[in-house]
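Bumping with the actual sequence this time:
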Amino acid sequence: MRRSISIIIPAYNEEKRLPATLTALKAYLAATSWEFTEIVVVDDGSRDATADVARAAGVRLLQNPGNRGKGYSVRHGMLKAQGDWLLFSDADLSTPIEELDKLWAAMERERAQAAIGSRDLDRSLIGVRQPLFREFGGRFFNLVMRLITGLPFHDTQCGFKLFEGAAAREIFRRQRVERFGFDVEALYISQHLGYRTLEVPVRWNDVAGTKVKMLGALAAFLDPVKVRWNGLTGKYK
């Protein structure tokens, strides 16, 4: 049953891309049947006018205590959001917001507590591809992640994930990773808690201006190790 939904947008120096994104989100939500909707922009210590853009658009604004990372931003938004269903999406809308309908339909059909967008299950849905080194780097990361954590997912890093609200709050209050590898941790915790998570193929287009730097991406290969260790030592109980 559709009741209320919150869309969480982690944002760091997104003053240029955010206006079009918020316009698209508002138009989409206005045409839906949700009883209550909210857009939550989480400003991660931006040095530009990201916060001003969110205020001018009339959406809900949360601000981190400095630049803490995407994982911290998503957790902040998830734990403060008011909806019965919680979606987090990248600020560039590389996955069009209309793909939310696919995630919702899959969760409703399978009675799942989470659904994640995937670029890998049907690559014909990719309109604009990433540079080859990033695409193969992502595939290699996923291979390493699966070997270390045992998670079955083909694409953990697509920034488009929908959670049932109560499950999300249980998952994200346990989250510890604050940067690139937080997706893996959230999915690991979800599985650890017994929640059913679906992987759903979605449309996706690479958008120039990624905030993921090479050193950060390399450091992220340690995150699955941290997640596995946290699981083994009972830190997610």
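The tokens above came from a reply further down the thread. The domain at 4-232 is CATH 3.90.550.10 (Spore Coat Polysaccharide Biosynthesis Protein SpsA; Chain A).
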